[in-house]
Amino acid sequence: MRVQVAALAAVLAAGGSVGGYLTTRAESTAHAAHHVVLGQSLTPLPVYRAYRFGADVGTIHATRDQRTFTYAGQAGRVTLTQRRPTIGLHVRYAHVRTVAGRWQIELTATEGHAFRQDNGEFYAAVIDGKAFTLFFVYGSDDGTNFAIGAGPNGISRTEAIGIARSLTTNVTVS
User: Fold this and answer.
1) In a domain, 156, yes or no
2) Cβ atoms within 10 A of the Cβ of 88, count?
3) Is residue 157 part of a domain?
4) Are 42 and 167 spatial neighbours (Cβ–Cβ below 8 Å)?
5) 130 domain-assigned
6) Which pLDDT score, from 0 to 100, does residue 5 have?
7) What is the rounded CA–CA span in Å between residue 174 and residue 168?
8) CB neighbour burial string for 106-144, b if at least 16 within 10 angstroms, e if fewer
9) Global pTM?
10) Is residue 28 part of a domain?
């Protein structure tokens, strides 16, 4: 029994599959499950395929098929992306909360079930000319399927709420 528990712990820690369920490394969330009423999308959130995040301004030179955006939360840094957006996410719910002491916006978008990160590519959500690393969320309690902010893109509570309210009519702040 002790060997089975140790093996299960190793699989869970590394990310893998247990009993048909996919496991990934993710920070534990302390919020309780709740029913979310979807609001209206106010403006599509443009998402670009990203080639490089947070590079020094002088080290990146975009080709004609690429462009750069300021890397949100990091002065003097840019993100290199494809020239045109891959998709525009229609955000219908946003949850603004802290993760490890930094503000994050978790999003539910209409395209959430079709647009998934399964090909090893990385994406940036662009808001007001700033690129945010787009995180794909799986198995959340409230049905969110994307997140921005926290980690590499430090934003203030006020900025996070403002961004969320510019995207959808239904915003929760906790």
Assistant:
1) yes
2) 14
3) yes
4) yes
5) yes
6) 28
7) 17
8) bbbbebbeebeeeeeebbbbbbeebbbbbbebeebebbb
9) 0.78
10) no
pLDDT per residue as tens digits for the range 131-169: 999 999 888 888 889 999 988 788 999 999 999 999 999
Look at strands 66-71 and 130-133 and give their pairing. Answer: parallel
Query: How many folded domains does the chain comprise?
Result: 1
60, HSE (Cβ side, Cα atoms, 13 Å): 22
Extract the residue ranges of the chain whose pLDDT is less than 70.
Answer: 1-34, 118
Where b means 16+ CB within 10 Å and e means fewer, 44-64 reads bbbbbbbbbbbbeeeeeeeee
Which tokens belong to 106?
A: 């978790």
Write out the residue range of the structural domain in which residue 63 sits: 37-173
Consecutive H or E run containing 37: none
In this structure, the chain runs to a length of 174
